[in-house]
Please model this.
Amino acid sequence: MNVLIPAHSIELTGEVQQCLLVAKQQGFDIANIELGVSPTHNFSLHDNDTSFIIADDTSTTRQAVSNADLVVSYQQRSTLSAVADCLVAAPKQVFIGIDTQYGFYDIWRQNEANKALFVNSAYEKDFERTRHLAWLLTCLALEFPLEDSLVLARAACSVSRETWPSEFESFPIPVLENSSLSIQVGWTVEGKQVSFPKLTKPSLGLYPVVDSVEWIEKLLKMGIKTTQLRIKDPELSNLEEQVKRAIQLGEEYNAQVFINDYWQLAVKHGAFGVHLGQEDIEESNLSALSEANIKLGLSTHGYYELLRIVQIEPSYIALGHIFPTTTKEMPSKPQGLVRLSLYQRLIDTIPYSREELGFPTVAIGGIDQVTAPSVWDCGVSSLAVVRAITLSDSPQSVIEGFSNIMNRKAQVVSTPNTNQEIENA
Model:
C-alpha cells in the first residue's frame, strides 16, 4: 500500500508516520505501507491495481476535486439541512466538524444514505485538522472501512499522540435519528426507549450455531447451555415447527436458545432470545422484542456498527467474522485477532448495567480448536462455533476440547494461586 501525500501538505508525513507507529504497537502489520509524495494536489492510496484518491479543502483546483473518490471538507459553520442537501448533489463529500448548538457533527453519505457522528463540544477544543486527516489516511491504509476510519480518526483526536483510542468516552456517537440529515436507521422503535434483559458473561459459554432443531436437541443433551437456531431458508415448510420446538427444548433443558432472524416467531412462541444481524435489524421491531422481555444479541463488524448498536443496549454483542468462513456470505473482510482485541478493549469500558462495565461478547467466524486459544485470549465472553462441531465425527469430544480451552484460562486468570500461574496468565 502506497500512501501519497501532496507537496502542499507534506508536513502530514510525520503525523502519518506517528499514527502508523501507534498502529504497529497494537499489532498491525505496517510493513507493506509506504509513504511518498503525490504528483497531484490530492492524497492517494494505491494498492496493486486499485487506488483511492482523497481531496481536502486545501485542494484549490476544480480538477483535483473532480478526480477524487472522497472529498474531505473541514468547516465550522453550516446547517445540517444544508449539508444534507449538498450530500445528495455531491455524495462523495465528507464534512468534518459541523458546528451546531448541540455539538459537532461529522457527516457523509454511504450506500445512498446519510450517516453522521456526533461529537461532544468538550472534545472539539482539542481537535487538530492535520492530526485528523493523518489518522483518516492511516486507518484507510490499514483497510478499515470508511465509517470505521472516520470513527477512529475522530476518537484519536481526543487522546494523546502515542495512544490508540480505547476508552468509550473518547469515541463519537453514531447518529441513529436526525430529521435534518434525513437519517433514520429503520429500527421500528416508534420513539420509545428500548432495552433488553442482561446476561452474565459466564452464562454464555461455548455457543454452537446450528441449522436444525435436531442439532439443538443433540447439543442440549451433550450439556450445551447456549445455542442458536439459524435456518437460512425462510420458505422452509416446517420453519415455525422447528422454531417452536427449539424454544421448548431450551425450556426443558434450562438452556439459552437464541432464534436467528425470525423474531416474529420468537415473540409468538416466547423465545429466550433472538439474534439479529445488521441487515436483519432494519426489518425488525425492536419495541416488540423489548416489550416481550426477550434477550437480544446483535452482530457487528467494526467500530461504527458497535458504537451504533450499544445505544439500544442489547443483551450481548457478536464480533465477527474473525477468520474467513464459508457458512454465509459476509459483507466485510475477516476482522482478525488484532481488531478483535481492540474491539474488546473498547467494549470493556462501555457501561452494561448500573453496576457493570462491558457487554458480554461472542466471537464468531472460522473458529476451530486450533484458533480458539488465541481468540479466547482477546478477552471475549464466548466462542461461537458452527462447522467445528457439525462437521466433526465426534461432536462431544470437540465440545470438551473447546470447554477445556475456555475453562483453563478462566481458572488461571480469576484464581491465580501462585506467582507462576500469574506469569503464565
Notes: Residues 412-425 have pLDDT under 50 and may be disordered. The first helix runs from residue 12 to 26. The two ends are 36 Å apart (CA to CA).
